[in-house]
Every structure is written in structure tokens, then in C-alpha cells.
Amino acid sequence: MNDQDLVRQVLRGNRGAFQMLIDQHKSLVAHMVGRVVKRELDHEEICQDVFLKVHDRLDEFKFESKLSTWVATIAFRMSINFIKKKELTIIDEAEVEKEIVDRIADNSFPADIISKDDSKSYIHIMILELPVQYRTVLTLYHLEEMSYPEIKEVTGMPEGTVKNYLFRGRKLLKERLEIFLKTEEL
Amino acid sequence: MTDKEIEELIKEELIKTKEDEELYDQIYDNLSKQDPELVLNDQFNLSVLEQLRSKKRQLAKERFWVSRGVCFFALVALFTLFITKALNIFSSLRSIVAYPIIFILLYVIFTRIERVFLKSTTSK
Q: What ipTM did this prediction achieve?
């Protein structure tokens, strides 16, 4: 079933179709929310709210973009609103980048609290240590395989900024992974 | 410029050694995989559908009370019209007495409705 058929079926009140819509976008929403909000306790609740909002506003979807892009936009905005509401700071990336570099320098990242032979989970932890904008862009680009214009639509960031965050995010991850693997060898 | 070309440029700037390439491979590989910590459980779909159902129920309930409220006010308006006509209050000084009586009557009815129905629905 393509996007158009799926949306039409959901608008007609077909519960099975809505369940299919949830199935198709569950991972996208879970990662968008998880990477922005970072709070395990609120994660599932926000994901549920995202799908309820998708259901409520589906009649406003005009097929001008892919359904996944539209769903991701809602997930991103709701996550950002949640952070603002809970007064969790959307940290200034320059500040955090400096902090990350400092922490890399004195090796005080959470490497010591996780299994050293698990560089896979280490990378996931490292992603959560990045500024929210980096995490979002990296997730949309690599996991959801979205293009720059699609990421621009979801986040509202200019395309140049998206590329910049992607570049810097990868670089920070690489630097951190390098340190981690070196300490592991010792 | 295509995304691929941009990607190539990014790579040219970032990857200088074989070690760099391996590290980026590892990062790319991880970034393209789901974080097991962020996978939603199997019950997730059902709980969304359940929430949707209860939201609809709540909406239907609210609509019911709004429509009952509209009907009630229409009846009150008709009743007031009937009373004023029956007592012929516009034609004499009796209106000075009739209006406070109607007002008190309506006040008692509204207060009772508020106590019996509205408080019980808002407290749920």
C-alpha cells in the first residue's frame, strides 16, 4: 500500500490501516524522539502523542512530501516542544562541542561505565552526548536515509546548516571513537 | 551538486588515513542501525489505538454535554417567553416582580445542574 492509499484508508476510519501506518513509522518516530529528548521515562509517552497527533492532523497532509517526512516533522517539533516545556535546555552547540573536545582531552566520557568490548553501544551513547541538532541530523541522514532537502523540511534548518552539523557530528564521533579504541588497547 | 558529490567532498576532507576510513566505516555502520534502546515494544501499537479509542469516547461525551446544554438553553428561552407572555409582564408594573422570580428560578436550576452533572464529569 502506498502513502496515498494508506492515508485515504486511515481517513476512512480503517483501524488496520492506522496500525500499518504506526508499524511503518514506529522506528522513525522512536529514534527521532529518543535522540532529541533522551529521557527514557517520557520516550514512549511522547511517541504515542506523536501518533495521536498524526491521526488528528492526517487530513491536513497534502502529499507534497513523503509521509515519513511529514511524520518526522511532527515528531521533531513535538520533541522540541517537550524539551522547552520541561525547560530542558536545547544546548548551544558551540558550547557543547567545546565541552566534548575538553572531555575528549581529559578522557572523562562514559567509556568507563560501559563494557569496553562493546564499541557498538558506545557509539550509541556517544550520539546521545552530541548536541541535539547534531543527533537529529545524523539520525535522519544515516538511519532514515533522508536527503538534505527532506532534513531541511523536518528540522527547519537551512541546508548549509544541515551539512555543517552532519560534518561536525561525524567528526566528533570519529574523534571520540578513536580515543575510546586507543584506551581499549592499553 | 548531488548529495553523493557533497558526500565525496566531505570524505575527502575527513578521511586522510586508512585508520580514519575504518573509524568512519564503523560510525556509518552504527548510525545506519537502530539503537536497541530506542526500539518500541510490541504493545505500543495497541496502546496507541486504545488511547485513540478513549479520546474518541471523551470527544463524544463532550459533544453530548454541549448538545444537551444547547437544548437546555433553548428550552429555558422558550419557557421564559411563555412565562412573560402568560403573565403579561411587559404591560404592567408586575414585571418588576416577575423578573427577579424568573432570575432566581433559573439560578437555582443552573446551580443544581452544575452540581449534579458538570462536577461529576470534570472530576473524572
A: 0.71
Both A39 and A98 in one domain: the answer is no
The CATH number assigned to the domain holding A111 equals 1.10.10.10
- The rounded Cα B21 to chain-centroid distance in angstroms is 51
| A79 and A110 housed in the same domain | no
Distance from C-alpha of A122 to C-alpha of B3, rounded to nearest angstrom: 28
Per-residue cell: A122: 558506545
Which residues in A have their CB inside 8 Å of a CB on B? Answer: 15, 18-19, 22-23, 26-27, 30-31, 34-35, 40, 43-44, 47-48, 51-52, 55, 119-121, 123-124, 127, 138-139, 141-143, 145, 147-148, 163, 166-167, 170-171, 173-174, 177-178, 181
- In a shared domain, residues A67 and A10: yes
Can you list the alpha helix ranges (DSSP code H) found in chain A?
Answer: 3-11, 15-37, 40-57, 67-85, 93-106, 119-129, 132-138, 148-155, 159-185
Give the residue from A85, A120, A136 where a domain finishes.
A85
pLDDT at A24: 92
> Over 50: is that where the pLDDT of B83 sits?
yes
Mean pLDDT across A114-142: 78
Place of cell 576510513: B21
> What confidence tens digit (pLDDT) does each residue in A146-181 have?
999 999 999 999 999 998 898 888 888 888 888 888
A53 and A13 together in one domain? yes
**Full-model pTM:** 0.70
The whole domain housing A179 covers: 93-185
Q: What CATH number should be reported for the domain holding residue A28?
A: 1.10.1740.10
Mutate to test the interface with B, among A177, A179, A184 (most CBs of B within 10 A): A177
* pLDDT: which is higher, A55 or A1: A55
